[in-house]
Design brief:
2 domains
Amino acid sequence: MPFLPELRNVATWCAIALGFAIPLSTGASNVLFAVTAVLFLISGAYREKFAAIARNPVALAALGLCALVLLGCAYGGGNWVDKKHYLVKYLALLGIPLLVPLFQSRASRIQALWAFVAAMLLTLALSCLSWLDFLPLAFRMKLDEGRDLALTGAHNAIVFKLSITHGFLMAITAYLLAQAARQADSARWRRTLGGLAALAAVNVLVMVLGRTGYVALGLLGIYFFACRFGRRGMALAAVACVLAGAAAYQWSEAFHTRISDAVSEATHWQPGKDDPSSIGTRLNYYANTLSIIKQHPWSGVGTGGFETAYAEQIKNSAMEPSNNPHNQYLLFAAQYGIFGLAALLGMFALYWRQAGRLAPPFQEIARAVLLAFIAGNLFNSFMLDFSERMFFAWISGVLLAGLSDDAA
């Protein structure tokens, strides 16, 4: 049918728009993802689409993980509501095979990355204005509606997302802008993009409270200079990160407070006792989840069994129940056992290896995103968090579509 290619083009543009929506709006992201999926299904060229997926090992690995999650619904504790809670979130990985056939052209991949960066530059501008206390009061109140006001304002200049998400996505944006500056043809653009990258980094370190952003920014900074200058660059970047961290600790109240609180909370944590602090709560999550893994080492507790198993683990204690241990690796091991954790880590290893086949600069960008995602999952369960999981599936589909270039 002559209109089917046009539908495929519209699907690609919707997927590009999704990159703009993810940092800004959950509702718009859901709508665009649904529209993209529908257009994918009705726009024909099924043989070409399935061929693009079949020759993409990471897309196949994502399908395999989704199959594992579905299998996990067949056993373990929890009711259907519990199973659905995790199932819906993990199935976001289907975005990778969905998007790979839509981004077969290099131009569309570049447009998608710039769409995401544009949204983050808007976020950066508003965050800076908030930090300077220049935002109109009515607009500031609208942004903070429904949030804990103690965690907003000039000391934590978040805009559309909460601090963990803001810091994580802004750290990746700083890296993307640094890469764009490196690729720029003119000195003027290099200075402009480099300056924006530096401002994004300052935003992470000085203007928001998310410690995950600090870790992601430091890791990506080291990776950027390692790719640019080899081992010498890695050493210089590590020193620069230490110096930047020391300067931020000295002069940024937000950074100083978050680091000092983390050290204090970790020092005072006592195993088995209720601890309402951020770090103490996380350490209790980790300890209790490790106990669950020891009790169910091979098959885990299933897709919906974690909350029930956790409640059983903390029975007769003062600790609060949880359905999220804030560590994706512990959660996956608890749900699907050691083999499930191996499957997740295997997908990441495959991702890293396949990213090495991409043309510059997509190769380095894909590996940078993966590094940030791997590190973020040490302190969060990003596959349960909407913006992070949607972003990972989206940008993975965009970037890894480039694996088809060799076969084209």
